[in-house]
Amino acid sequence: MLLRGASPAKVLVVSTSPDTLNHNAPIRSALRDGFAEVLGAASVRACPLELAGEAVAGFRPGLVVALGSVAVDSAPLRELAQGVRRAGARLAVWLHDDPYEFDYAAKAEDLADHLFTNDRWALPHYRHPSVSHLPLAACRRTHDRPVRPMAGRALDLFFCGAAFPNRIALLERAQASLAGRRVEIRGAGWPAGLPFAENTRMNPAAMADRASESRLVLAVGRDLDIANRRFRLPASTPGPRVFEAALAGAPQLCFAAGLEILDYFEEGREILLFDDVPEIAAAIDRSHREPAAFEAMAGRARARALDAHTYAHRARTILAVMAA
């Protein structure tokens, strides 16, 4: 058990599911970078779940942060927790798929010394005695880009993400108003009827490059539950792409599914909100009429992300919570 007020000398970041099934493995590397900014590179390691037992035994961390989804029943999370305790370390589990997989959360509650949930509304529904809300973030190494002049941006509108039903419906309704504009949608599962959509996955750096080349980046959360029947929780906290695009210097048009986003970015100064399809084309038009205003907005959002929403900030929060 760590002494009150102490920081762990070493931190190991692992995933909660095997990399063969883990589409979010880059977040593990981003969190490792965040801890390295705070503690120094020699004090931090990261590895896939498959190698976690060996890493715990060899590296002897004081804190292990297990990051991801616990939906994979075959993932050896109990073995991970047992190895952490044998090493005299503490285990924090940071779940990043709340509330969409909340029904699986009990598995993490049984194992963790402390739980972090990416979604604020999920927080009061946990029964674990030690739980915190911690949004995902952006990685300085991967996502940080200078703010480009609007005149040189190749795209009017960019979106990168999986084709969840609510996103498909939104862009299908917007399709006519976006005709003739430079629009690019990337991800997986997009229907052939959307001419500007391409089923191509982008790595995080490529996504940041494209966001920095766009007059507007669209931010639309997902609306597809995997295991959320117990409480049917609506999502509250914005996903990581909002922080990533901000750090990439992109003006953002964010769908107003809730108002928690205003705790992270100021509407009108750092982001724009919308709740209806005609506002997308109107925002593109405005970006052409007022390029200086959109450059300034992107600059303020990037500064806000650098000041409060990188994985170094999240690492400091984890260390403070685990030392308390």
From TrEMBL:
Spore protein YkvP/CgeB glycosyl transferase-like domain mapped to chain residues: 169-320
InterPro entries to which the protein is assigned, alphabetical: YkvP/CgeB_Glyco_trans-like
UniProt-recorded name of the protein: Spore protein YkvP/CgeB glycosyl transferase-like domain-containing protein
